[in-house]
Amino acid sequence: MFVARTSTRIPLSKGTVLQVSRVVSSYGGYGKSSLSQPRAFSTTRRAGLREYFPQPETEMIRKTKPAWEHPEFAYEDMKTKIFYAHRKPADFSDRVALFMVRMLRWGTDIATGYKHDVESPKKIGDANVMAATKPYSMSERKWLTRFVFLESVAGVPGMVAAMLRHLNSMRRLKRDNGWIETLLEESQNERMHLLTFLKMAEPGWFMKLMILGAQGVFFNSMFLSYLVSPRTCHRFVGYLEEEAVLTYSLAISDLENGKLPLWTHPNFKVPDIAVDYWKIPEDKRTMRDLLLYVRADEAKHREVNHTLGNLDQNEDPNPFVSEYKDPSVPHPGKGIEHVRPTGWERKEII
C-alpha cells in the first residue's frame, strides 16, 4: 500500500508545467489542488524543474537520421485496425507465459498505484475486458507514472533476444535469418516511447530505484528463460503487449470521455521528439494522437512476438523482413495494413 501510494508522485517537466499553467488559467483554477500536493519522492525542487533530456547545444553536432526509420502508419488504420485482442493459450508453454504475464501485471499495478473502479477487474482474455475494466481516479500524473515505468522495462525483451541470437549466430557459424534486426528495432521503439514520456515527466529517486530493480530482475529472468525456451519468451512478450494495448486503450478512452482535461486542452502539444520520430502531421499533435501512435506500436509488437512464437526458432526466416512472391496476398510487414492481433500462423507464411 505504501509503494502504491508514493510511487505515483512524479514531477512534471518544464514544458509540461508551462502547458499545465495555461490549462489551469483557462479552466479558472482547475487542477490547482493536484499540483500543490506534496511530492513524496523527488530530488528536484519544483521551481527548478527542467527537461529531463535537454537538447545538446553545439555547432559540431547535427541531427542525423535514426538507424531504424519508423514506418508510416495511416491515421485511419490506427483508429480502426488497432484494438485489444487475446490469443488463447494452445499448450503448456503458452499457459506458463500467460501466467507469468498476469503475475507481472499484478506487481506493476501495485508499483504504479493503478486501480480500477470494479472489485475484480477483467483479466487478459476475459470477454468485454474494455467495457468491464475501467481505471479509477487515473489522473494525467498517474498515467505518466504508469507509462514511464512500463516503457522503462519494455525494451528489455527485444534486446535480450537479439543479443542471444547474435551470439548464437556467431557461435554456431550460421545465419540468423533476419530475426536480430526486428528484435533490436522493437527494443529501440520501446526506448523511444520512454524518451517521449520523459519529456513530459521527470521521475524522483524512488521511481528510479524501482526501475533499476525491475530492469535488473527482468533482464536476468529473460536472459535465462530465452536460453531455455525462446518460443515461450516470445509468447510471453506477445501476451505482455496485449496488456500494453489494453492500457493505452483505456487511457485513450479516458481522454475521449473528458477525464483528463490537462491533455485535451487546445494549447497542449506533444514533445518534439515524438513529432520527429513518428513524423506526426501538424494537425495530429494532440495527446490522443500520440497515444494512438504508441498503441499501434505495441499492437505491432504483439503481432510480431505471437508470430515468432509460432515459428521454428532455429530454421524459419523472419517473415517481417522477407519479400513475398505474391505481394497481392496479405502477409506480415512493418506496417499495420494487414495487422494480425494474435499473430500469423506458420502455415500462412512459410
From TrEMBL:
It is found in: Mitochondrion inner membrane. PANTHER family: ALTERNATIVE OXIDASE. CDD domains: AOX (cd01053). The chain crosses the membrane at residues 143-164, 205-228. GO terms for molecular function: alternative oxidase activity; metal ion binding. Its main location: mitochondrion. It is a multi-pass membrane protein. The keyword Signal does not apply. This is Alternative oxidase. Binds 2 iron ions per subunit. The keyword Ubl conjugation does not apply. One of its GO terms (cellular component) is mitochondrial inner membrane. Belongs to the alternative oxidase family. Its cofactor is Fe cation. It comes from Glarea lozoyensis (strain ATCC 20868 / MF5171). Fe cation 2 binds at E190, E241, E298, H301. Fe cation 1 binds at E151, E190, H193, E298. One of its GO terms (biological process) is alternative respiration. Catalyzes cyanide-resistant oxygen consumption. May increase respiration when the cytochrome respiratory pathway is restricted, or in response to low temperatures. Its EC number is 1.-.-.-. InterPro entries: AOX (IPR002680), AOX_sf (IPR038659). Pfam families: AOX.
